[in-house]
Amino acid sequence: MGYRAENLFRLLKAAAPTLLGVLGVFLLAAPVRLFEGFAPTPIIPLVIVFFWSVYGPDYLPPLSVFFIGLLQDLLTGGPLGLWPAVYLVTQFIVMSQRAYFLGREQKVVWIGFAFAALGAGLILWLVMSLMSGELLPLRFLMLQLAATAAIYPLFGAVFGELHRRVLVEV
Amino acid sequence: MEFLGQDRREGLGRKAHSRFVLVLLILVSVLLLLSSLYSAQASVFKKAREGVMDVASPVLSLFSGPISYVNGVAGSVGDYFNVMEQNKALREENAELRQWMNEALELRETIEVYEALQGYVAPPEAQPISAFVIGESNDAFARSMIVNAGRANNVEVGQAVVDENGLVGRIVEAGGGASRVLLLTDIQSRIPVYVEGANVEGILVGNTRAQPVISFTASADDLEPEPGQRVLTSGAGGALPRGLPVGVVTGENRGDITVDLYANYARTRMVRVINYAFPVVDHVVGDEDAGDAEEADTDAAGVASELPAED
Fold first, then answer.
1. Is the confidence metric ipTM above 0.90 for this complex?
2. What share of chain B has pLDDT > 70, as a percent?
């Protein structure tokens, strides 16, 4: 592998979580309607933010998180700044609890993620309710958060392998 | 998993635990949120949205192929189970529709006679623009779709979007080659409607539930809307053409009339944007003004385009 190619690969590795986040946002903006829309699309960027905030904050700097959120706002048509705030606050809280999560069993981390998702959902709901001037129905949000929490073990395992074997490369 | 979490400083961010940047960016996004609340229509935000939509639309189109295939497979599994019921329901509906068709044909003939009798000037024809749904916000609170037609196809902000069932929503952002449709269920959606037969005008208000509600603004008499009555766009405010089918009244919920929409958002794939020139109530009296009527119609296009979202 030439010097140039190696550099490119290194850059790609460094940017991989960010690119995955962007891909997750596109999935949220695509017309995925599994089972006639009864299965909500999981918020994969939230999984990515959580995962790399715990296991490799260097790989997902706050600026990346900010732009992932901003892209999501722009693509889904919500008020600008909503998703950056949700993701960044999640990152802040998760990073402050990082020492607890490191080295724990995946089951424990999963429960942690479920709580993080609930917290993120709460912020989202509060802001949107404030904006619309009434308490909004929670049903769809809860379904979506449940779907996101349900896919965490799978995505967590895949991201774990990616992070360990490709990105950190020990 | 013990390898996870060690800091090798190989990532994009060189400073691990850069709390300062993180807190700063949180503040920036909160400020952004506040400013976008108070100036949602600011040209910077609008340009950013339209630009991103235009850039993203080829990617979304690329995505939508395989996605619609997967959706089709997953959807058809369910269809296999109730194919008999569906068949029966469709046959009944077909029989009913045949009767309606006959009645419609008869009525068309009658109307033609009436139109020939009086000096009838037809309202300007709406020109539909066909488009495919390439994006949809899978968000708990924001309900919108992205279609692959934009200003290049004469799509403008404020135009109505329909599919084969009825009204889908309204254009809120028009990019060069893609535009955003605000669905009727979004919390920001406000559509002037009337209930057929009950003679009441109102505003259809979205609340993220599947069934939006009508909040009444004016009632001609005390007739209460009954379940099953049709809800149509009223054309008030001059943004949408009158008479687009929206849904049926299903009942009452805490004083509001709930409406079951004709549009099935889980199946909306192809839509038509209605490029409608609103007729102007101008001195179009009698035959001698027939020439002016032409002129008024061209004016009307301008007026209608200057009347975007008033909510």
1. no
2. 74
In a domain, B30, yes or no: no
Residue-range definition of the domain harbouring residue B215: 127-283+296-305
- For chain A, what is the domain count? 1
Name all contacts of B252-256 with Cβ < 8 Å and 24+ positions apart.
B253/B213, B256/B213, B256/B214, B256/B215
Closest chain A residue to the Cα of B74, Cα to Cα? A35
Q: Would you state the structure tokens that stand for residue A78, as one six-digit string?
A: 């919500």
DSSP string, B260-294: EES--TTT--EEEEEE--PPP-SS--SSTTHHHHH
Are the beta carbons of A35 and B207 separated by less than 8 Å? no
Question: What CATH number does the domain containing B179 carry?
Answer: 2.40.10.340
Q: Which of A65, A80, A144 is opposite residue B140, by nearest beta carbon?
A: A144
Nearest residue in B to A97, CA atom: B17
Residue of B nearest to A73 (CA): B49
Mean pLDDT of A16-34: 85
User: What is the reported pLDDT for B293?
Assistant: 43
Is residue B238 within 8 A of residue B304, CB to CB? The reply is yes
The answer to whether the CB atoms of B23 and A92 lie below 8 A apart is yes
- % pLDDT > 90, chain B: 5
